[in-house]
Amino acid sequence: MDDLLELDDQLDPEHRLIRDSVRELVSGKVLPHVGEWFEQGTFPARELAPALGSLGLLGMHLEGYGCAGLDAVSYGVACRELEAGDSGLRSFVSVQGSLAMFPIWKYGSDEQKEEWLPRLASGEAIGCFGLTEPDYGSDPAGMRTTAKQDPSGDWILNGAKMWITNGSIADVAVVWARTDEGIRGFVVPTSTPGFSSAEIHRKLSLRASITASLYFDDVRLPASAVLPGVAGLKGPLSCLTEARYGILWGVVGAGRACLEAAVDYATTRVQFGKPIGAFQLTQEKLAWMAVSLGQAGLTALHLGRLKDAGKLKPHQVSFGKLANVRAALDIAREARTVLGANGVTLEYPVIRHMTNLESVLTYEGTQEVHLLTLGKALTGLDAFR
C-alpha cells in the first residue's frame, strides 16, 4: 500500500498497460540479476536492448522510424517502472531515447534519421551522447572539443568527453563540439578511425551501468555528419531537458522500491516481541516516506500532463528533477535505517538505490544548477556567471 494517494487511478488504461508490461519485464529480466550486476560492475546492454526495443521503450516518445510515438505520461510511467528496477536500467533507456535518438529525430537530416533511428528503436544499435568533458560539466559552453572543416568539406573532430553512459558499447555517438560557427552536434559512428573509448571503473554508484570516456584524435567525418537543424547550446540543452523529464519520473520508482522494501521488512522483522513496524518511531518513518513519495508522484504526473499539452517549460523540469531526486534520496536513506544492518547488503535493494541516487542527484544538472535555474525563473536574474 505504498500509493496512499492512489495516483495510478489517474492513469489512462493505456498508461496502466505500459506500467504492467514494463513491470513484468523488470521483474523477470532485471530484478533476479541486478544485485549481481551491481556487485560485479556490469550491465548486459546487448542482451537487454532487443527486449526493451520489442516493448517500444527505446525512443518511445518519438514519432516514426519505428518509434512508438507515445505520449509523455507513457514515457514517464515507463521510466518509473524501469528505475524501480535500477537507475542504470532507466539511464540506458533515457540515453538511448532522449539523448541519442532525440537529437537525430529533432535536428538530424533525413539520411541520418533513416540510417540510425530504426536500428536504435529496435535495440539493434546502441547510442550515446557526448557533451560532458573532463574539465567542463556544469558549464558546457566552455567545452574544448573542436570540429574544423578542411578544404574537402570534411570535419576533423578532436577532444575528449567523460562520464558517458553507454560510451564504450555504443555504435553511434551524438557528439557536441565547438566550431567556427558555434557549438554543433555530430553523428559519429564509433567505428570511425580516431574514435576510442575507455570504460570508467571503481564506481560506487550506478555500477549496473556502463560509463566511459570518449576520445577523438583527428576523427574525420563527412559534411553530412553534422546535425543540420540546430546550432549553439540550444541543441544539447534541449536534449538534457528531455532526459531530465524521464529522470523526474524514474526516481519515483526508485523511491517506491525502497519504501516497499522498508514496509515489508518492518512488518516481518520482530524485535522486543513484535514486528518493528508496530513501533511508533518506525511508523513515523514510513509515513513520512509515503508522503514524500506521493508528493513526488504528483509532481511527475502534473509535469507529464503539462508536457502532453505542450506547455512544459525547462525551469519546471528543473523543479521536478530537483524535488523528486531529493525526495527519492531521502526515502532511500530513511529506508536504510529501517532495515538496520541488513540495509547495507545487496540482499535488499535499498543501498543499491541509495548509492545510485547519489549519482542521479548530480547528473543531467547538479542540484546547484537546478536551484539557480529556479532562482532565475523567480527573479529574472542570472546567477550562473
Automatic annotation (TrEMBL):
Names of required cofactors? FAD
Domain Acyl-CoA dehydrogenase/oxidase C-terminal as annotated: residue spans: 232-378
Among its keywords, does the record have Flavoprotein?
A: yes
* Matching InterPro entries: Acyl-CoA_Oxase/DH_mid-dom (IPR006091), Acyl-CoA_Oxase/DH_mid-dom_sf (IPR046373), AcylCo_DH-like_C (IPR036250), AcylCo_DH/oxidase_C (IPR009075), AcylCoA_DH/ox_N (IPR013786), AcylCoA_DH/ox_N_sf (IPR037069), AcylCoA_DH/oxidase_NM_dom_sf (IPR009100), Glutaryl-CoA_DH_mitochondrial (IPR052033)
Ranges for domain Acyl-CoA dehydrogenase/oxidase N-terminal come to 13-124
Q: Which Pfam families match?
A: Acyl-CoA_dh_1, Acyl-CoA_dh_M, Acyl-CoA_dh_N
Is Phosphoprotein tagged as a keyword?
Answer: no
Q: Which UniProt keywords apply?
A: FAD, Flavoprotein, Oxidoreductase, Transit peptide
Q: Where is the Acyl-CoA oxidase/dehydrogenase middle domain?
A: 128-219
| UniProt record similarity statement | Belongs to the acyl-CoA dehydrogenase family.
Q: Please identify the protein, giving its name as recorded.
A: Glutaryl-CoA dehydrogenase
The taxonomy runs: Bacteria, Bacillati, Actinomycetota, Actinomycetes, Streptosporangiales
